[in-house]
Amino acid sequence: MLISKNKYIALYFQNFKEDTLREDYLRQAQKVISDPNILINVVSRRVKQLKYGSKPTVESLEKLSLEDIALLEIIKGNIQYELYNSSKTEDR
User: Contact 73/32 with Cβ under 8 angstroms?
Assistant: First the structure.
């Protein structure tokens, strides 16, 4: 059974919260980070940081879940990530 990228990501995050993600934020964030696995990892790590007291880098007039805040930060370009390159550590 094939599941679209949006459904895959939404299903993953539904395990962590009762509300559904804002689909518009999810679609916009996927334009920035197209690989769903990387997007899930980036959002998950940012949510963990926010849970432990990091301040959001975006402001919203509405109350957003931590997942939506992380997606909005990705959309605005406030979060950067770097893929691990094992060849860099092997060169040493």
Answer: no
Residue 44's Cβ-count burial label (10 Å; 0-12, 13-18, 19+) is middle
Q: Just give the CATH number of 5-90.
A: 3.90.940
Name 58's Cβ contacts closer than 8 Å, sequence gap at least 6: 69, 72, 73, 76, 78
* pTM passes above 0.85: no
Q: Identify which of 57, 61, 59 has the alpha carbon closest to the alpha carbon of residue 78.
A: 57
Query: Is a pLDDT exceeding 60 seen at residue 18?
Result: no
CB atoms within 10 A of CB 14: 13
